[in-house]
Design a protein that fits this description.
This protein has helices spanning about 10-20, 175-180; strands spanning about 5, 25-30, 40-45, 50-55, 65-70, 75-80, 90, 95-105, 115-120, 125-130, 145-150, 155-160, 185-195, 200-210, 215-220. Strand 14 (about 200-210) and strand 15 (about 215-220) form a beta hairpin. By secondary structure, the chain is mainly β.
Amino acid sequence: MLKKSFLMTSVLAFCCSTMSARADTVVVNSAGSTYSPDTWFVNNVRNGGTAAITTAHGDNGNGSIQFTAPTAGNVKADMEIYFSAPNSFLLSDLTAFSYDVYRGSSSTASARYEAALRLYVTDGTHSGYLVYEGTYNNQAPVVDAFTSVNALPAYLWATGTTIDGAFSNYNRTAADWAALYPMMRVYGISTGVGSGWDGSFDGAVDNITIGSRSGGTKTYNFEAAASTAVTPEPSSLIMLGTGVLGGVGAARRRLFA
């Protein structure tokens, strides 16, 4: 297994000091092909892109989400989860947002490209994604190794036509967006690759962590099969509530090309 390198987009202690006392690990062995609340699924796949839980790039277990894009062009692939209403929370309550990301040396796309990490947010009027990409944080991908990235204090750009500064502001943090939209809530997580990249890509994502003051901290560990590397707490094996926010279905439609 490749040794994991550690990269901080800002002071890691900031994240650690704000995390809730309760932390759960959820082992995810499979992803659906259609939207279901509180369940990971593959979405926005086009032109040969793939997103799947495989053993190609093991992180702290035997698997991860592997993303591939066979050629340059309008290739796309995402894996996402959208929360039921009871499991959403105010963006201002966000206490953890991080992931492990990997770029394979076989990739021919520009060296700045790696899988993005996104929050789906809405206040009922303003909706879109807040997107972490290393290239907008002066962080180049590490090749052939997983890198742990703390995106909580990082710059997140926004999508969606209803968010001020979407597609044009690249120096706002999650806290900045929360100050701009105090009622904005987090309703999902998305990770993926592609959309106009200039070459092929092979990479992976694992250990997506999200936390809030009200809900504690949860890490999604993606494994192709049951693994002894992580022993989740019993509470993490129980599916979250099944109530569905009426507007979340719209999140399944990508708000940017």
